[in-house]
Write a structure and sequence with these properties.
Strand order of the largest sheet: 2-7-6-5-4
CATH superfamily of the largest domain: P-loop containing nucleotide triphosphate hydrolases
Helix content: 25-40%
Largest sheet: 5 strands, mixed
Number of helices: 11
Distance between the termini: 59 Å
Number of domains: 3
Mean pLDDT: 88
CATH class of the largest domain: Alpha Beta
Length: about 350
């Protein structure tokens, strides 16, 4: 697991411009870190109640807190703020462009706690910040594979080295799909049921193509060919064709892979000369979109075949089994195909 605390500096660099964050103190405390996406409004602490004071969170001062501080005498205001800053506080953010009391700035400076200010309303800013921190602080893992955005579906392609993952991804890019990450994919679990894939900052959107070398996808194909991150909607495993292995031929039932407590639909695609893997990946992504909409073409075909087989057995006076075998279903499909050709 790669999860680690983030710094106030990281938040300022990532979202400072978007949220119009203004630094009211020096940058001495910007490397303060925290490891929770929960925020705290220290109203009770300002009144002198510290038993449940969540000091290790980002402290939000809105109109209520600032108005309370303004209503105190300077000596009392300084005393209460000094007591609060005895705890470890990563940073304080004042919302709605409110004027911060000078005692707050002075005491924060003494304790190397940065004070920021934003023009956003408290409720709006808290929502944005919580959502950002939840994703940044989510548990994460580095996995080997290629992550693509195919028809709006996040497809994680995995397999042994040399099986053709990068070549498949390159052909998908040529067909208008977008690269998220190659070789090393960072997976973050947001909530209990969602994995989000992204690339590492060092590798960026570079790919290794055997026989050619390292290529920069963004430089070659433009910004339309890349995507920052995508929800993992589908897992595709590429493996060398094994004639002794029975691969899925019907697709009536969906197969899932449990990845870091999240269930992800999985397809195993055998690789051999003559098979266009990129097109098969596209078809798998489209099939998954149908399944999400509650449509399963294989199940519908199976129902029609079962109905036909039941009628034929009824004519011959043979009792129908509870469920036909895969061989019987495939045999019925081949019989229907032969009849159609004739």
């Amino acid at each position: 697991m790669l999860t680690k605390p983030i710094s106030v500096r990281h938040v300022l660099e990532k979202r400072g411009a978007e949220w119009k964050l203004e630094l009211l103190t020096s940058d001495a405390g910007l490397d303060n870190t925290f490891s929770t996406s929960e925020l705290n409004r220290p109203g009770m602490a300002l009144t002198g109640y510290y038993e449940v004071f969540s000091a290790d969170r980002v402290q939000i001062l809105g109109l209520t807190e600032i108005s309370y501080l303004r209503g105190l005498k300077s000596k009392d205001r300084r005393r209460r703020l000094t007591r609060i800053f005895e705890f470890y506080i990563p940073c304080v953010i004042v919302t709605t462009s409110l004027e911060a009391p000078p005692e707050l700035i002075e005491i924060a400076e003494e304790n190397r706690v940065p004070v920021l200010r934003t023009p956003l309303l408290t409720s709006n800013f808290s929502g944005h910040l919580s959502h950002f921190l939840e994703r940044e602080l989510a548990p994460s893992w580095a996995v080997h594979g290629v992550m693509m955005d195919v028809f709006g579906m996040g497809v994680l392609i995995q397999g042994r080295s040399g099986v053709g993952k990068s070549e498949c991804a390159l052909e998908l890019i040529e067909r208008g799909h977008r690269l998220v990450a190659d070789d090393i994919v960072i997976l973050r679990r947001v909530g209990n049921e969602q994995l989000i894939g992204s690339c590492t900052e060092r590798l960026g959107y570079h790919m290794e193509i055997r026989g050619i070398g390292i290529i920069d996808v963004e430089s070659l194909y433009g910004v339309r060919s890349i995507r920052d991150e995508e929800i993992v909607s589908l897992l595709i495993r590429l493996e060398r064709w094994d004639p002794k292995k029975d691969y899925e031929r019907l697709g009536i039932k969906e197969h899932y892979m449990k990845m870091y407590d999240c269930l992800v639909p999985e397809y195993v695609i055998p690789v051999e000369p003559g098979r266009n893997i990129s097109i098969l990946v596209e078809v798998a992504a489209l099939m998954q979109r149908l399944h999400r909409a509650g449509i399963n073409p294989a199940a519908k075909l199976n129902e029609r075949i079962l109905s036909t087989m039941a009628k034929q057995r009824a004519v011959r006076g043979v009792a129908s089994p509870a469920a036909p075998s895969v061989g019987e279903t495939l045999g019925a499909i081949e019989a229907l195909q032969s009849a159609a050709r004739e």
